[in-house]
Amino acid sequence: MRESHAHLNVSEFEFDIVAGEIAATLYHVGVPRQEHSEFMAIIESFRSMVVGPAEVPAQARETASV
C-alpha cells in the first residue's frame, strides 16, 4: 500500500475527502450502519500507509536554513 501510493503524495486533507466520499456512497447505497462502520474503520486503518509525509512550507524551509 505504501509503495503504490508514495508517488501520489496524498495529504491528510485529501485522504479525508476520499474517506468522506466512500462514507457517503455507502450511505447512499444503503449499507447497514454496522457494516458501514466496519468498512470505514478498514479505510481509516490505511491512512498511515496512504498519506505522504507532510510538506514543510517554503517559508519555514527558508527560516530553518538561516
Total of DSSP H or I helical runs spanning 4+ residues: 5
Structural class, by secondary structure, is mainly alpha
Q: What is the subunit organization of this protein? A: single chain
Counted beta strands:
0
Keywords:
single chain; about 70 residues; mainly alpha; 5 helices; elongated
Give a topology summary.
Elements: H1 2-5, H2 12-28, H3 33-45, H4 47-50, H5 58-64
Short note summarizing the structure:
By secondary structure, this protein is mainly α. It is built from 5 helices and no strands.
Q: What can you tell me about this protein's structure?
A:
It is built from five helices and no strands. It has one domain. With 66 residues, it is mostly helical. Helix 2 runs antiparallel to helix 3. The mean pLDDT is 87.
